[in-house]
């Protein structure tokens, strides 16, 4: 039996709509809402020695920024009524892979993400998180336009 | 046609810089490369003691740690592939990043120009000694990086600093030799500052200019004139300064992506030369092996060839100098031995793979025998030109990128030495970076001999306190590495996949 609904937040309006949709479903099914913000990061990125030295400071700064700008406003707004358990998580990594890992960790019924609507060329070159999620996810994926 | 007054003035500027610099370089070189004459082996055969210092350390640790570097190989690859990384810890410096950072600092002109110098002076046989130096250097590097992580300094704000100055002062203090440790740490820092200015900066600027001048038409091209070296150096100094002083990290981010690409491209280019002359390969390999013992080039016998090989290998992969330990120290791990394992890959990539590629290209095409130009990048460039006419242009781009990334790495090593000596402050930071940029200009203006001599001297001097410290802490390293390997063999260190079951 699943215990939560996972929503991927990236600061876009679509992801806020995804959070609202996730909150509504979580209330209806009596599940916890887990809001996740993934800071794109690769363990195979090439960095300079100075970047490496400051990496842990940078990481802390990125986590704080993700909380302040993306996560906390939505968590605060959705938990204001007090009828929905809401948790905010910030992780570093590949967005789709990290969301899949979080879905497993939080025993999510499904993953909800917003669709930014980027051009075909951009999607072809860089891929998109929803399409990667669809390929990788062991649970259903709900994409909110 | 008479030269414009400005040109004459400018020409004298380059010469003035060189004439000021050459005597300084000669003086330092004569001390550092003090050589014992070995007349019984042949006339003019000399053995520089500093090379013996590096070679003996490599062999000592290889024997003392029972060929650790060869046993570490497989596990090192598993470590950099992230098999032991905890995904929950993602976001800090991985083994791959620490290795890649150190490799981008070492893969540079030593791999292109240094190899050409070694083969031009010592003949094809120098290659074999270079490979052997690379193989024993793997062990030295594993030792210094294990200590680098073990004794690193973590600041309250989460930044990490490490390197020989920290393990010399802390590690030796633990053994009751605190005063000696501090003296060695200070000496190491002074030599690192010199090495950063010399090999990490002037040598790079010099060879970058030499290559840019060569592909733009040599003395008759736009970079052939009087102050061209100084102007080229000034532009390079501005680009280095933009990143290290101005904090424009975007330039560094671009080169960080380009340098690995160019390194792969460089290896492909070498392979192209090799495959284009496939029938010559057995003969070239035979020349490399046979002339390692009976040198044809006549550089004073076997010892001379051996010295050239070892000297260039040490300059290229920096094993025993302690520089890479500074870059490796930022890795996120609770086990210092893990970085010791990963670090052994560095001389392998640098010397055994990339230097051998350059050597094969030079030996197969025979360009090392051309005495019309000074040995250096141009020898390698000529080797490539025999197969693809436009390749020197690509090589010039690679050389400039390699030089640039190496400069950024060494400015950091120098900065760590400066802040260790004078304390963490904005004044120290800015002063060091300004001096560093100034020497980019001097390096591009100065003659190759003076630059190589000075850079070799300073970089090799770093090995004195560092290797002495490594000997004194050999027991600590052995306990660390062997203890880790024992736990690994007993299954006490499962991979993340095994932990998840």
From TrEMBL, chain A:
Q: Which CDD domains match?
A: USP-like (cd00293)
Report the InterPro entries cross-referenced here: Rossmann-like_a/b/a_fold, Universal_stress_UspA, UspA
Superkingdom per UniProt = Bacteria
One short Pfam name that applies is: Usp
Residues forming the UspA domain are: 2-145
Q: Which family does it belong to?
A: Belongs to the universal stress protein A family.
Write down what this protein is called. Nucleotide-binding universal stress UspA family protein
Automatic annotation (TrEMBL), chain B:
Per the record, the domain of life is Bacteria
Q: Listed GO molecular functions?
A: amino acid:sodium symporter activity
Q: Please give, as recorded in its UniProt entry, the membrane topology of this protein.
A: Multi-pass membrane protein
Recorded hits in InterPro entries, A to Z, give: Na/Ala_symport
Q: Where in the cell is it found?
A: Cell membrane
**A GO CC term assigned to this protein in UniProt:** plasma membrane
Residues crossing the lipid bilayer are: 20-41, 47-65, 183-203, 223-246, 258-278, 284-307, 348-369, 389-413, 434-452, 458-477
**Keyword line:** Cell membrane, Membrane, Symport, Transmembrane, Transmembrane helix, Transport
> For this UniProt entry, what is the primary localization, expressed as one broad class?
membrane
Give the Pfam families listed for this entry.
Answer: Na_Ala_symp
Gene3D superfamilies reported for this sequence:
Amino acid/polyamine transporter I (1.20.1740.10)
In which family does this protein belong, per the annotation?
Belongs to the alanine or glycine:cation symporter (AGCS) (TC 2.A.25) family.
User: What NCBIfam families does this protein map onto?
Assistant: agcS
> What is the protein name stated in its UniProt record?
AGCS family alanine or glycine:cation symporter
Species lineage:
Bacteria, Bacillati, Actinomycetota, Actinomycetes, Geodermatophilales
């Amino acid at each position: 039996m699943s215990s939560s609904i996972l929503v991927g937040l990236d600061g876009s309006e679509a992801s806020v709509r995804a959070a609202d949709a996730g909150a509504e479903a979580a209330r209806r099914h009596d599940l916890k809402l887990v809001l996740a913000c993934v800071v794109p990061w690769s363990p195979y990125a090439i960095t300079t020695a100075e970047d490496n030295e400051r990496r842990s400071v940078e990481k802390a700064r990125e986590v704080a920024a993700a909380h302040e700008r993306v996560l906390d406003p939505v968590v605060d707004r959705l938990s204001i009524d007090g009828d929905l358990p809401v948790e905010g998580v910030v992780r570093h990594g590949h967005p789709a892979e990290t969301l899949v890992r979080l879905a497993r960790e939080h025993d999510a019924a499904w993953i909800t993400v917003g669709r930014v609507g980027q051009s075909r060329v951009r999607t072809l070159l860089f891929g998109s998180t929803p399409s990667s999620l669809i390929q990788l996810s062991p649970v259903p994926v709900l994409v909110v336009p | 046609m008479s030269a414009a007054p400005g040109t004459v003035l400018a020409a004298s500027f380059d010469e003035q810089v060189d004439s000021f610099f050459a005597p300084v370089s000669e003086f330092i070189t004569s001390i550092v490369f003090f050589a014992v004459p070995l007349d019984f082996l042949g006339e003019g055969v000399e053995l520089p003691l500093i090379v013996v210092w590096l070679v003996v350390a490599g062999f000592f640790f290889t024997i003392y740690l029972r060929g650790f570097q060869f046993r570490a190989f497989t596990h090192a690859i598993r470590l950099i592939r992230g098999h032991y990384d905890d995904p929950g810890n993602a976001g800090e410096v991985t083994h791959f990043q620490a290795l890649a950072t150190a490799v981008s600092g070492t893969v540079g002109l030593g791999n292109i120009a240094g190899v050409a110098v070694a083969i031009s002076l010592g003949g094809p046989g120098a290659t074999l000694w270079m490979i052997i130096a690379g193989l024993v250097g793997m062990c030295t590097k594993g030792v210094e990086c294990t200590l680098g992580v073990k004794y690193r300094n973590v600041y309250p704000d989460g930044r990490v600093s490490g390197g020989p100055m920290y393990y010399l002062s802390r590690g030796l203090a633990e053994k009751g030799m605190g005063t000696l440790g501090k003296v060695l740490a200070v000496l190491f820092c002074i030599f690192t500052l010199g090495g950063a200015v010399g090999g990490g900066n002037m040598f790079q600027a010099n060879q970058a200019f030499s290559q840019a001048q060569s592909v733009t038409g040599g003395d008759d091209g736009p970079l052939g004139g009087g102050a061209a070296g100084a102007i080229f150096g000034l532009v390079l100094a501005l680009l280095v300064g933009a990143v290290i002083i101005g904090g424009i990290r975007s330039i560094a981010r671009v080169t960080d992506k380009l340098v690995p690409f160019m390194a792969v491209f460089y290896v492909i280019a070498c392979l192209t030369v090799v495959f284009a002359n496939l029938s010559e390969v057995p003969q070239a390999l035979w020349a490399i092996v046979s002339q390692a013992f009976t040198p044809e080039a006549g550089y004073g016998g076997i010892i001379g060839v051996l010295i050239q090989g070892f000297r260039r290998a040490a300059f290229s992969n920096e094993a025993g100098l302690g520089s890479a330990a500074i870059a490796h120290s930022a890795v996120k791990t609770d086990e210092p031995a893990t970085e010791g394992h990963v670090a052994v890959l560095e001389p392998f990539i640098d010397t055994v793979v990339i230097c051998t590629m350059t050597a094969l290209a030079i030996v197969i095409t025979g360009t090392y025998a051309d005495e019309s130009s000074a040995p250096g990048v141009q020898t390698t460039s000529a080797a490539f030109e025999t197969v693809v006419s436009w390749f020197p242009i690509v090589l010039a781009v690679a050389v400039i990128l390699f030089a640039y990334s190496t400069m950024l790495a060494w400015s950091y090593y120098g900065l760590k030495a400066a802040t260790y000596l004078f304390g963490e402050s904005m004044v120290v930071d800015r002063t060091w970076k300004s001096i560093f940029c100034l020497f980019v200009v001097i390096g591009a203006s100065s003659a190759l001999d003076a630059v190589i001599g000075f850079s070799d001297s300073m970089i090799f001097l770093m090995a004195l306190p560092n290797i002495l410290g490594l000997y004194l802490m050999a027991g600590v390293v052995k306990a660390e590495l062997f203890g880790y390997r024992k736990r690994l063999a007993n299954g006490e260190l499962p991979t993340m996949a095994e932990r998840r079951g």
